[in-house]
Amino acid sequence: MLTVDLHTHSIASVHGFNTIEELLRQADRNGISGMAITDHSPGIDNTIWLSQNRTGDVPWEENIKGPDIPYFMNLLSRYKPPADIQVHLFKGIECNILSHDDRPTDVPVFIADRFDIVIASVHPIPPIFTVENSLQVTDRMIRAMDHPIDIIGHPLHKGYGPMMELLVDAAVEKGIALEVNNSSLQLGKSDPEQVRLLLEMAALKECRIVLSSDAHMANELGADADIRSILNSMDFPVELIVNHSKESTLDYVNRRKKIRAEIKDRLTHRS
Ligand SMILES: [Zn+2]
Ligand SMILES: [Zn+2]
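Above: query sequence and zinc ion SMILES. Below: predicted holo C-alpha cells.
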C-alpha cells in the first residue's frame, strides 16, 4: 500500500466511480497519509467517446463532458475535506500532453500555480495526441516539462514508448518526476521489463520517481502490488521516491508550486 497516492480520479472525470469524499474515506481506512485528487483536464472523456463514435460533423471541443474549469476553481478555492478525515488532500489535475498544438499541454495556465500537483500525461487519443514515432513522443514530453507541470504520468506505454535516456536526462535537468503507474502495469499497458529499465536508469542518474495507483475507484486506492513486484527485486534509493512519506511529498509540492508560479508568470507576460 502506498503511503501517499498522488494520482487518483473521482466521478468528476466521468469514467471514475467515486466522489472525492468516498476516496478520502477509503484512504483513511487504508491508513494512507496523503492523497491527491487528479481529475482529467477538460475534454478527455468526450474525446474518448468521439474517437470511438466519430461522425465528423461535431467538433470535439463543443461536447466537453469531463470536469470543466469551474470544477477545478471550486476544488481549489472552496472544497475542504470533512473535519474527521485525517488524510492530507493534495489538490491536483492530470492534464494532457498535446501532440499538434502550440501549447505543450492543456493545463489551465491561469490557475496552474494554485494546484498542489500537476501531472502531464500522453493519452494517445487523436486529436489530443496522435502518435507518430518515439522521437516525437519524447520531444512532446520534454517540451511539457517547460510548462507548469510536476510529473510525467505513465511515461511508459506500449502504444508510445519514449526514448528513455533522453526522457530521464531531461527530467533530471528540469526537476520533473517520472511516474511508475500501478494501473498501467496491472492492465498490461506498460511492460514490467521497461519499467525496471526506467528505474535502473533513474537510480543511476538520480531522477525523481513518483509511485501512483491511478485509481479510478475507491478499491484501487493506494494499490502498488505490481510496482512492488518490480521494486522489491531492486535496490532502489528511497530518497528518489518523491512520495515515500508525507513530508517528502510536501517538500516536493512546495518547491514545485513556486517553480510553477514562475513559469506561469513567464507564460502570462509573454502573451
Ligand atoms: Zn492518464
Ligand atoms: Zn489518470
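Strands lie at 4-5, 34-40, 88-96, 117-121, 151-153, 177-181, 209-212.
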